[in-house]
User: Fold Gap junction protein from Bucorvus abyssinicus.
Amino acid sequence: MSWGFLRDLLSGVNKCSTGIGRIWVAVVFIFRLLVYIAAAENIWKYEHDEFECNIKQPGCENVCFDHFFPVSHIRLWALQLIMVSTPSLLVVFHIAYQENREKHRKQKIYKSPGEIDSGLLCTYLISLLLKTGFEIVFLVLFYKLYNGFKVPHLVKCDLRPCPNTVDCYISKPTEKMIFLYFLVATSCLCMLLNLSELSYLIFKYSVKCYLKRYKKKHQ
Assistant:
């Protein structure tokens, strides 16, 4: 899969972000996207082939694997990356709309299209809320699907067509668990950065509005 579209999308939003927003983009690029492409994808590449049970009953191994891994960690991580980055499209579309409107009217309508202090603020805040919401949803989803943030060495399966309770072994469980913890940590960090930027922007523009009203009142 090509991740070029994600790079271009985040680079476009980076132009109008605050300092905290730029840190978020850097974290997504370096600690999530590059780690996914360079290492994590290869670790889970043959997870089904390397999942072994101590019985050769036809269908038993497949049923057990599907039960313990209903969705692949790596595919869920990829979906999370896409969904978390998608709200940035709102900001890109808003900037494009402003620029297109000025182009058609052939006059300057906005003070500075693309700057966070224009009408872009509301759209930017909504995108931050959506990013934070998606992070929370996927963390809860990971926790519910896998009964916590862990990868066991051994799982016991008694589903049909298995004739009895069989032991199944997961390949490279320690390595997978390390990357899973890394995933959770970077997701929490991105969530913290989003909330920090949201608080900063609300505080900054609340102060700005208050100062304007105070100035008008004394004039």
Remarks:
- Helices lie at 4-14, 19-43, 60-68, 73-85, 88-105, 120-146, 173-218.
